[in-house]
Design brief:
EC 6.3.5.5, seven-stranded mixed barrel, alpha/beta, Glucose Oxidase, domain 1, carbamoyl-phosphate synthase (glutamine-hydrolyzing) activity, Carbamoyl phosphate synthase small chain, 20 strands, Rossmann fold, amino-acid biosynthesis
């Protein structure tokens, strides 16, 4: 591995003019994006390959990164998605028997530009005070650009608010993962940036998981005869995803059970008629405390979101779009952010965090079981309704007998 002291110079520039000088890490060049921080002390491979980080330059608050390298078993998707990467002390060696390559080499392979050797704590404290902001990493020859020119380039980059990034991370064609548990039926998963751990958890609960492109229509969903619909996590502003909201309203109108996580939670909120807003610096890490209001239990959960749903935390309220009563089911204990929604009159719920938690705690993994049971309950209800509306064998016999008797009598007359 290349020594930190022989790598090219690099500089991190924020849109307010703040500068941090360090050394190049990964690919060399220029990259722009929203600078955010992730507080996980482990799981950097899962963070890097999480499509929700598309368009963002991720800073790791844990000081020492890269010692376990990268392997072929833990990626959450087909590539590294972060726009840039910021670490303090990159490991000089890889010390894990599962490693297939170093983190540095993986960043180079995927063209991800990073910076190391800066005071990541100072950057984190600045973002916590000033809020997430656009930034740029300039390394190699780009590090020598005029400082004013670097700031100009950063300020010309698009803001995260208003961006729809789903098309950049979604599959282009349907992908199917067969159920590994007792089969329930076909599940339509709208891929807005889905993680592999989510697919695996759904398959383990008995779903044949159909991961569908983000531009699928309601007819495309109906074509697979789904027992339910799932909206995944993903990057971007939920207010810029009107088509996905309209699609979800069609799903709800069809009466299909629904479960959404992260971005899917925000889109359920908008489908129900609620608003969303951008958080000052977001929640990103694997140690976020959340209260499950139904049980009173506090869960330590994995988060990656910069937007949240606007809704009253206490009591129930009417869906502005006519879907009956709704309640906030989970609340973030750090800042009272809405972390879950539950519709009381239709089979739909969502959470803002990641129950698959890769890497991270498994406190919220039960939500996949809750979803599976919701779908089974819906199936039982539909079967019961069909049975009640369908005449019994005795009734059909009597009806046929009366019809036959009447016909005979008419013939005799």
């Amino acid at each position: 591995m290349t020594s930190l002291f022989t790598t090219d110079p690099a500089v991190l520039v924020l849109e307010d003019g703040t500068r941090h000088v360090g050394r190049a890490y990964g690919a060399v060049g220029t990259t722009l994006g929203e600078v955010v921080f992730a507080t996980g002390m482990t799981g950097y491979q899962e963070t890097l390959t999480d499509p929700s980080y598309a368009g963002q330059i991720v800073l790791q608050t844990a000081p020492h990164i890269g010692n376990t390298g990268m392997n072929d078993e833990d990626p959450e998707s087909r590539r590294i998605w972060v726009s840039g990467y910021i670490v303090r002390d990159p490991s000089r060696v890889v010390s894990n028997w599962r490693a297939d390559e170093s983190l540095d080499d993986a960043l180079v392979s995927d063209g991800v530009i990073g910076i190391s050797g800066i005071d990541t704590r100072a950057v984190t404290r600045h973002i916590r005070s000033a809020g997430s902001m656009r930034g740029g990493i300039f390394s190699g020859a780009a590090a020598n650009l005029d400082a004013d020119e670097q700031v100009r380039l950063v300020r010309e980059a698009p803001q995260m608010a208003g961006q729809n990034l789903s098309a950049a991370v979604s599959v282009s064609a349907a992908e199917i993962t067969p159920a590994t548990g007792e089969r329930i039926g076909n599940l339509a998963v709208l891929d807005l940036g889905v993680k592999q751990a989510t697919v695996d958890n759904l398959a383990a609960r008995g779903f044949d998981v159909h991961v569908l492109p983000q531009d699928v229509t309601i007819d495309g969903i109906r074509a697979i005869d789904p027992v339910a619909v799932f909206y995944s996590n993903g990057p971007g502003d939920p207010a810029a995803s009107g088509d996905h909201v309209a699609l979800l309203r069609s799903v709800l109108d069809d009466g299909l059970p629904f479960f959404g996580i992260c971005f899917g939670n925000q889109l359920l909120g908008r489908a129900l008629g609620l608003g969303t807003y951008k958080l000052p610096f977001g929640h990103r890490g694997i140690n976020q405390p959340v209260l499950d209001k139904a049980t009173g239990r506090v869960e330590i959960t994995a988060h990656n979101h910069g937007f949240a749903v606007e809704a009253p935390i206490a009591g129930t309220f009417d869906s502005p779009n006519g879907y009956g009563q709704v309640e906030v089911s989970h609340v973030g204990l750090n800042d009272d952010v809405v972390e879950g929604l539950r519709a009381l009159d239709i089979p739909a719920f969502s959470v803002q965090y990641h129950p698959e938690a890769a890497a991270g705690p498994h406190d919220a993994n039960y939500l996949f079981d809750r979803f599976a049971e919701l779908v089974r309950e819906d199936q039982r209800s539909r079967l019961s309704e069909r049975s009640e509306s369908k005449p019994s064998d005795r009734t059909r016999f009597d009806s046929q007998a009366r019809s036959t008797t009447g016909a005979i009598q008419e013939d005799q007359q």
